[in-house]
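Hi R.,

Here's the chain you asked about this morning:
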Amino acid sequence: MLANPWMILAAVLAIGSAGAGGYWRGHSDATTACSAETYRTLAEARGKALIAAQARLATVNEAAANDARRALENARRLAELQEAIDAIPDNADACLPAESSGRLRSIR
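And here is the predicted structure, written out as tokens:
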């Protein structure tokens, strides 16, 4: 018995449409998977960048606190030195010998 040409055409078209549908579905699924992987990778990178930025911020804050502590310590020392200098009586009538003025100029 010979097969009806219309039946053969219907079978070929059915198999072809099933293959095309599977290809389209696979392509769509692969694109979705690729997008999901890209977004996951970006999220991980953002998380790592956030952690690194927080670590840098902590370092900067620590350095700023150290600088402020040093500035306060320097201000305290300067105040102590100023008090010590002010405690020394002025000797307006005293003068330096001429030979010591050259030595004083060379001190730097």
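One quick note: The chain has a mean pLDDT of 85.

Cheers,
M.
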